[in-house]
Write a structure and sequence with these properties.
Order of helices and strands: HEHHEEEE
Shape: elongated
């Protein structure tokens, strides 16, 4: 009986070890496939500064980088949410909120400082931003634009700010 018990225990240990190796390689393979689903943007957009005013609201942004176009459209709608094209864009709904207390800016400038691809086809675009108002604290300082790819088209799915650590 002891031999049978030791034999079963050995089989369980061998099985547990082989499953772990298989699951780790499968997990790495899935992550690699998810990251390869889209092209990571080139470094050409790093350290470039883009600036806009609310009078640019009717301008169509056609930068050669679709990621910059997505961010520029979110900025355009931040400055002027009344623009008809903003209603059809895939952007966070809070950008289109209307209230006098929002302190919506009339000028925004940003510089891309870092591009961080994440699993699931998500990109974090780190920026240094300046604006002439507060607007939820999402236009001044270290701002991260969360981008997703849908049907080979990039869109801003969220925006958040990081505290300055100086």
């Amino acid at each position: 009986m002891k031999k049978f018990f030791i034999f079963c225990l050995s089989l369980l240990l061998i099985n547990a070890c082989s499953d772990e190796q298989n699951s780790e390689s499968a997990s790495e393979e899935i992550q690699t496939k998810e990251i390869q689903m889209f092209n990571i943007p080139s470094a050409e957009i790093l350290n470039q500064t883009f600036s806009f005013t609310n009078t640019d609201s009717e301008t169509i942004f056609t930068h050669n980088n679709p990621i910059i176009n997505a961010i520029n459209n979110a900025v355009k709608c931040t400055l002027s949410p009344h623009t008809p094209s903003c209603a059809s864009l895939n952007i966070p709904k809070f950008i289109l909120m209307e209230d006098e207390s929002l302190q919506r800016p009339s000028k925004i400038a940003y510089k891309v400082t870092k591009i961080k691809p994440l699993a699931g086809g998500i990109l974090h675009i780190y920026t240094q931003s300046q604006c002439n108002n507060n607007w939820f604290g999402l236009c001044q300082g270290n701002i991260i634009y969360v981008l997703q790819n849908k049907n080979d088209s990039w869109y801003v799915s969220d925006i958040f700010a990081l505290e300055n650590t100086k």
